[in-house]
Amino acid sequence: MKIVVPVKRVVDYNIKPRVKADGSGVETTGVKMSMNPFDEIAVEEAVRLKEKGVASEVVVVSIGVQQAQDTLRTAMAMGADRAILVLSEESPEPLAVAKVLKAINEKEQPGLFILGKQAIDDDMNATGQMLAGLLGWGQGTFAGKVEVADGRVKVSREIDGGTEDVSLALPAVVTADLRLNEPRYASLPNIMKARKKPTETLKAEDLGVDMTRRLTVVSVAEPEQRQAGVKVGSVGELVEKLRNEAKVI
Amino acid sequence: MTALVLLDHEEGRIRKSALSAVTAASQLGDVHVLVAGDAAVAQAAAAIPGVTKVLHAADAQYAHELAEPLAALIVSLAGGYDQIIAAASAVGKNVLPRAAALLDVQPIPEVVSIVDAETFVRPIYAGNALATVRSFDAKKVLTVRGSAFDAAPAEGGSAPIETVAPATNPNVSEFVAVYLSDSERPELESARVVVSGGRGLQSEEKFHVLEPLADKLGAAIGASRAAVDSGFVPNEFQVGQTGKIVAPELYLAFGISGAIQHLAGMKDSRVIVAVNKDPEAPIFQVADYGIVGDLFEIVPALTEALN
After folding, report:
1. CA of A193, closest CA in chain B: separation in Å?
2. Which InterPro entries match (chain B) (predicted)?
């Protein structure tokens, strides 16, 4: 079984995002970019399934600008076998990405797509669900555990009140939550090896996908900042303030 | 204009964030709600003021709110609606994007403010920025953040209930089991007070130190990602960018340093209290009241002081 893992290049999660002065978006020029952390978990899960003999090949795909090549290299250093870069503008919308991935499905015919549950830049949390919808496949979103057996995948999902297990026919779409696994660091030899792994470059329009945005950003603003309050010296003082000043207890 | 709100529920109760979605929808026009499964929930939905019709998907395939059949059902009903809305709950986030794809619509997740029928505000980058976006899609598909809209009242209305015909089930998914943490405490996302613990709690055993305080305050218990990753509490306790978004009247953070991903989940609380032994912990920058000290002394003392 082949597994396809889409990966996104985003502002590194340790960087505090800065809103551009003209309110058109968040500054990405000159900012450290990395693989979306949830996508690292997705890559790790796919590589583990290959190591267990469940999967035969792991293909990573990124849709975006040329620099997403670096993100694909990282995924290959983690153990993915090959990569596909689909060139488009930076950070296309989930609907367009899902359509590109649907076209990739026709080309690659994987048994499983594993995606990160959300990208930490636009926080959309939508692409996996949308891809599953377009393909008419089952979706195991917010996965905390994935088991493949007998032509099905059992996914333990993180839900509001606890967890839920679902069983999906293969092929299927899984989206990775935080606790699915702990991604490995790529070793230096594997980073070197990844340089020799093949990357195919395509253009979104060659796949016949209309990438036109459905949402236009009117403005991006900083949220109202909270002011730091006071430090109090004792529990007694805290209780007094909560009672009489904040009137919250 | 009429909106269809997917009203998700758990153990026979309408989720509070779904009631917030009703409030959001009522800012746009008439509100119909869709209840999958539980007939008692459909009855309860009929009593929400402002709801003018309840669609009840009674068929067994909808009992567990599985995304595949439910999205297909929403698509079959979508023709008559200008907006499809749900809470940004686990169910809403699972089902609505799938329905949106089938409708060829780009969904707008986690809406915190409605500017007009085309324009919505949503947080991006873990709430470090607020994007105002305008949708060109003929139909809008949104999830709304419960903490940003008041919950609609539960009583006072009397909408008719209509049983809807099932749509074709893609038959690719099966419900196996659900494991809910049994708790007498209020739901985390809608609690008036949240008592939260981080890595500073040190262990699963020691995390229990927060319970008497939570009991005293009638509070829900939350946790930082570090506490969940360390196995002190299960994942459903997590507050933050990828966990629960809460905005209680009072949020007490014990042994939580305050990573931006955690702040994203609680910084809209009305009053924030932080207790941490590190005076430089970033949590103090958002806290109204802070105490630098050992939480294992402060928590029992605070519990005692509230007697």
Report:
1. 32
2. DHS-like_NAD/FAD-binding_dom, ETF_a/b_N, ETF_a/FixB, ETF_alpha_N, ETF_asu_C, ETF_asu_C_CS, Rossmann-like_a/b/a_fold
**Which of B176, B241, B289 minimises the CB distance to A230?**
B289
Taking an 8 Å cut-off on Cβ atoms, the answer to whether A232 and B290 are in contact is yes
What average pLDDT does range B69-73 have in this prediction? Answer: 98
User: Each residue of A142-184: pLDDT tens digit?
Assistant: 999 999 999 999 999 999 989 999 999 999 999 999 999 999 9
Is A159 part of any domain? yes
* B193 shares a domain with B142: no
Backbone angles phi, psi at B301, to 5 degrees: -65, -40
Contact B290 A246 (CB under 8 A): no
Structural domain includes residue A38: yes
Residue B307 confidence (pLDDT): 85
| Option in A139, A220, A229 nearest B98 (CB) | A139
Identify the H or E element spanning A76: helix A68-78
Domain extent, residue B301, equals 188-305
Chain B residues whose CB is inside 8 A of the A37 CB are none
Q: What is the mean pLDDT of residues B37-52?
A: 96
Local structure of residue B92 (DSSP, 8 states): H
pTM of the predicted protein model: 0.95
Number of independent structural domains in chain B: 2
* The total number of structural domains that make up chain A: 1
Considering only CB atoms, B106 lies closest to which of A94, A223, A246, namely A94
- Cross-chain residue pair B67–A19, CB shorter than 8 Å: no
Tokens linked to B189:
């996302």
Tokens coding B192: 């008036």
Long-range contacts at B233-237 (CB < 8 A, ≥ 24 apart): B233/B197, B233/B204, B233/B207, B234/A162, B234/A163, B234/B181, B235/A144, B235/A158, B235/A163, B235/A177, B235/A178, B235/A179, B236/A158, B236/A159, B236/A160, B236/A161, B236/A162, B236/A163, B236/B181, B236/B188, B237/B188
% of residues, chain A, pLDDT over 90:
96
Residues B147 and B16 in one domain: yes
Per-residue model confidence as pLDDT tens digits over B138-155: 999 999 999 999 999 999
B222 and B136 within one domain = no
Q: Contact B195/B221 with Cβ under 8 angstroms?
A: yes
Range of the domain at A175: 2-220
Distance between CA atoms of residues B307 and B298, nearest Å:
15
Say if residue A185's pLDDT is above 90. Answer: yes
A102 membership: H or E segment, kind and range: helix A94-108
Q: What CATH number is associated with residue B18?
A: 3.40.50.620
Any domain includes A215: yes
B134 pLDDT tier (thresholds 50, 70, 90): very high
